[in-house]
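hey so i finally got around to running both of the ones u sent me last week. sorry it took forever, my laptop kept dying halfway thru and i had to restart like 3 times lol. anyway pasting them below in the order u listed, first the sequence line then the structure token line for each. didnt double check formatting much so if smth looks off just lmk and ill redo it

first one:
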Amino acid sequence: MATWAIKNLLINVDSRKVVKSSTQLVDPASSQRLNAIYGDKLILACEFIDATGAAYPLAAGDTFDCGLDKDFAHVLDSGTAGAGYSGAIESVAVSGLTEAIPTTGHITLINGAGQADRIAYTNYADGVFTVSATLTYVYLLGDTVEVEEELMAFSDDDEVDVAGDWASIDRATGKISIRLNCLTDSFSRKIAAITANELLSYLQIRRYPDGETQPTTMLQDWCYTAKSVIDGEGEPGVTAGPTVKFPSG
């Protein structure tokens, strides 16, 4: 069974990049970049600094999320609603889908006014998504339904500063930890599709300042993802989707 492994990241919040050191704010060596292998369970030990190399303090009430993916396109497929929908719903029928749709994930309904509801689905079969949701807006027959392509890995604030993960956690000096689980269905599917040993990917960390709802990107930089030499360690989990589509802000 995989254990959580620490990966240190020194992050310049002005460039939003990983840097070599607090006195050398330049691109790091390849060995200093994140290299996430399928099945990894990582603790990202993040130290934030400003353009002078000084610690960038964070508030105790700040919250964070983190996403990892191979690109910036996260709509797997789109189709049209097979009926009108409003209020509490248990299913959504969609026509016109052409891609292989995962059995679980998220869809977004978009009406003619551009209003949208993003909801989770627990099953997909024969053009019908099984859901349990109460919609904010009203949707008509023929409105757009997008199927979200889940991130390879995603962590919300519940995975931040878990007790015992990193002894150096200290928000006053800009140090937090984030757990990132790379044993997911999405990671498995996307990494299996490549022929190379490694895949250039992208890591984003967002901060929601205490009391605010709009996030600020603290990091968006490239990294590596890779296949595992030994496969079948465990059944892949399901990537939790972000509350705002990645990347943003």
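and the second one:
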Amino acid sequence: MWQTSNPQKIITELNELENLSGTLLRLETGETRTHATKLRLNLTNFAVIAPENQLFKNACRVACNWAIHQYLQANAGGCVDFAAKSTWHIELCNFYVATFYGLPDGFGAGSFYPEAHSKIHSETQELTGYLDTAIGFPIRGIPDYDQLASKFFEIFHTIAMATLESQH
């Protein structure tokens, strides 16, 4: 859950987290617990991804890559496809609900866990409703889909995981 409705602030916070990841890794290898506790307390507004979760995060990135690219292409200037936007947004929400609750696939995840699905959908609209300001999606011109997909994933994943963890 984000403390702000400003997507640019979320990007700034993610960049700050990335800078702190080296510190978090050092803490795992034996620095004092007092320092680790203070650092964790200072990061309560962030969804901290511990080193052991990097594999999980990368698996999510790989699994969502196609859907994210399709979602971004549905937003391309001059040919916005609202049906495709909705379909791919739901697909991404289904993936996170299915992953979090251990379902075999995303099909129908919203039916099994409608509250979680609805909450992810509404929380991620801070991102999906403001792609131009959130990730720099061009209103005109040809987007760099690979760069934008990476930014989109980072924010979507963080919001989805924080939302699910707050409901559990």
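quick thing i noticed on the 2nd:
Residues 52-167 form one domain.
anyway thats it, ttyl
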